[in-house]
Amino acid sequence: MGRNFSRFFKRFSIYILIAVSVSLLAIPENISNHIKLTVASPLAPVQKITSKTVNYFRNGFRKMALMIKAADKEEKLEEEVFLLQNKLIDHQNTINMLNKKLKTASELRKDIDSIGKPSIADIIGYDTSNFRKSILINIGRKQGISVDDTVVFGSALVGRISAVGNSSSRVILITDPASSVPSRFLESRTQGIVQGTGNDDTCVVKYISRHAEIKEGNKIISSGIGGLFPKSIYIGDIVEVKDSGAKLFKDINLKPRIDFLKIEYVSVIKKSKVQKIHN
Amino acid sequence: MPWIIIISITLCITLIQTTLVPHISVLGTQPDLFIVFLVYHYLNSDPKQTFHANWAIGLTKDFFSAGPFGLITVIFVILGYLISVIRGNIFRRHLITQIMVTFIISIIYNLIYLITLSVLLSSSNLLAMIWKCPVIAVYNSIIAIPVFLLLNRLYSSLRLSSIDRR
Asked: What is the average pLDDT across A269-273?
């Protein structure tokens, strides 16, 4: 009797767990994101320490390798510096001419700066899946972060906040398959959408007409359309343009400006600031 | 096996997977320690306890991924069932068998995950990544060797390997 009951209970618990697993899929995304970050947050301090240790050793090894290369490059660089110093004098004239335009631009910059500086956050963890590209950062609701805030590194686009916990947040990178960024070519001003592919070093640019003149090396910036991302943030460079006859749009591959595995911190531009900049 | 051991190993794996593993990626792929542990655990532990542990491992992986919540848990449950089906018919104590099972399970997991994700996200870009599935599987199989040897040592030092000889 007791054994039968135990067997029944074990089988019953298995069915319950299967039902729970399937029902988890039906939880709305904002609630599931909140659950995920709440459960993951106790591990955040340990993740931060581990990340810092890993980065410390990685940087140490990289610096050692760079030191060896640097000695060879030094002589060449000295020659280049001599030539560049001469060229600087030529460029001084051009700089004077552009001074007036720069004054106008700097006034606009002052307006943006007066809104406030972005929050700096350390990267404390990466996604466990091979096909999703997201990172965990160590600031959250307590620091005023909210969903859809823009994340940048040195004025280049990293992604946007997808979930916010009390003291940690998840950032969906621009390389994630669920990411779409309204964008514009810097040179031709043609608009398109930058979508992630799940690869660390490739995105695709969609909806670019086959008649548009796009070349490898062209730069892409955010267009600001839709209001989710601020305008004019550098996204990356075009590395491949395919133009197959039957298609309406070009197949364009983009290399993101940032190597997401090499950065250790990011800046978060709060949504309210972005809206003010747009206004 | 005591739950405290499973939870400790899962937490260690989570920590390594989210901090260290992304830095050792090859061809844009990284090994999946959760899959490696799932296979090892299924092949070496009491079959009555594995289902619950397997569910917990899947759920932990879900917590630290941006994907749809519960998807990995469901796939892990399916994979666990698959391993339990073949478990009795293979020489599961041998390292080569364990590595082969890791390879096959990795391919199946990544294929199911990739296809489900591309349907859920309506993203055709994802299917272009199908070539990654065998690469990840090979990488998992290579990583599985030291991980299995380490877990063997851990299990035997904790006298857990004697649990399942049936």
From this structure: 72
Question: Which residue(s) pair with A193 in the sheet?
Answer: A182, A206
Report CB contact under 8 Å: B65, A128. yes
Q: What is the pLDDT of residues A198-254, one digit of tens each?
A: 888 889 988 888 888 888 888 888 888 888 888 888 898 999 888 777 778 888 889
CA nearest to B102, candidates B146, B68, B72, B61: B146
The CA radius of gyration of chain B, in Å to the nearest whole number, is 15
Confidence bin at B162 (pLDDT 50/70/90):
very low
**Any idea which residue has 């995950």 for tokens?**
B113
Phi, psi dihedral angles at A192 (to 5 degrees) = -160, -170
* Average pLDDT score over chain A: 81
Pull the structure tokens for residue A249.
Answer: 């749009």
Which 3 state secondary structure label does DSSP give A255?
strand
Location of structure tokens 């590395």:
A239
CB contact under 8 A, B71 and A200: no
Q: Collect all residues of chain A within an 8 Å Cβ-Cβ radius of residue B14.
A: 43, 128
Residue contact A127–B64, C-beta within 8 A: yes
Query: Bridge partners of A205?
Result: A194, A252
A39 to chain B: nearest residue by CA? Answer: B63
* Alpha-helix residue ranges (DSSP H) falling in A157-228: none
Give the best residue of A41, A46, A131, A200 to mutate against chain B (max B CB count within 10 A).
A131
Whether residue B19 and residue A51 make contact (CB cut-off 8 A), yes or no, is yes
The per-residue pLDDT for B160 is: 61
Ranges A4-13, A75-84, A252-261: which has the least confidence:
A4-13
Judged against a pLDDT cut of 60, whether residue A12 lies above it is answered with yes
Mean pLDDT of B70-74: 87
Q: How far apart, in whole angstroms, are the C-alpha atoms of residue A169 and residue A148?
A: 11
Q: Which residue of A has its CA nearest to B115?
A: A131
User: Are the Cβ atoms of A129 and B129 closer than 8 angstroms?
Assistant: no
ipTM of the complex: 0.80
pLDDT for the residue numbered A105: 58
**Two tokens, residue A34:** 């909140």
- Chain A residues whose beta carbon lies within 8 Å of the beta carbon of residue B126: 131, 177, 197-198
pLDDT value of residue B139: 92
3-state secondary structure chain B: CCHHHHHHHHHHHHHHHHHCHHHHCECCECCCHHHHHHHHHHHHCCHHHHHHHHHHHHHHHHHCCCCCCCHHHHHHHHHHHHHHHHHCCCCCCCHHHHHHHHHHHHHHHHHHHHHHHHHHHCCCCHHHHHHHHHHHHHHHHHHHHHHHHHHHHHHHHCCCHHHCCC
